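Sequence in, structure out.
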Amino acid sequence: MKNILILSLSRHDDVNTSATFELAREFSGSNRVLIVEHPYTWTELLRGLTGKKGWIRLIATLSSRPLIRFKGRVHVLVPPAVSPTNFLSFGKWYGRLSRRNHRAVAKCVNSWLLKEKWKHYYYINSYNYHFPDLNKYMAGQCLKHVYHCVDPIVKPYTVKHGIRNQERAVENADLVISTAPQLQHKWNSVKPSFTVLNGVNHHHFNSPRKCVPAVRSLGKKLIGYFGAIERRINYEMLIATFKTNPDWTLVMAGPVQDEYVPAEIREMPNVHFIGKYTYDELPSLIYSVDVAMIPFKIEEAAGCIYPLKLYEYMSTGKPVVSTLFNSDLLIPIADKVHIAKSADKLNVAIENALNEKDNKKQLRRKSFAAMNTWEHRAKIFLNYLNK
């Protein structure tokens, strides 16, 4: 039985799941697992005091003992609030505040390590490039240090310090495990580098669900997108497609990053933004539409994306339409997914998906998803820890 300490960018009370928490859940079947979630900044804390999440972080900040939450068998440590740093340019003051933040989080972690008598552990920094040097402040013996790279860093806010910090995190690690081959290739010349693809909780999505009446009533031919509504989506393509086909209805479900969403698509009568959903609600939402879609831009950064939603969609058996945002991922499964190789081909892909009558294709999607579970991914990940 291993002690596995994971520094996560995601948090235990996020609305949706993440690769970090899904892997940790699988690790915990035969190991002791602690996730150190990403701390709030003081700015986030003050903004969040109107809700439960903010008060949990306030308690963590004021408490003299580590605040622990549980996700199944996984212990989750909620660190105290730290100083915001991203507004600063790289230099003296950024370095000072960053080191102070590292010490604050490490103090909390070390208190827990001492209490639980963890003298040695495996350390995984799961894409938390904000704390590239945390390992240097932690007590005990780190048996192996992994940097888990799950996405390209492309947004201006994260690019500012993220690329440099991520390179430092990789430098500190013994090996890098990425969620896509193109991410892995980036680190091949720097550290031992491997790929462990994202997976799915197949049972969660494959179990029969009732449709959501409020969604089902939005139209006769429903095409749904489920996930963050942000930079990666090709909005121009969606506007053109759903203007051309007014009898189709687009359902956009998930948190909206307003700065990326054109006003034109919001005003279209056959496009509906239905807001956030929980992980438990997601399967029923997918079952409520006729076609599930991934309308990502075809761009260089998209080749590094391996979205959780692909296997989630496939687990339900629903017809899936996707742009060819990642050819390494999608071409091998072209017999299971309707692929739009260019924006002008999206009409054809959706039409084919709506008219799909082949039950064998549905079964192929479900069977393929069942072979790509988080349980399987966790075993591969642990094999790399053992090397």
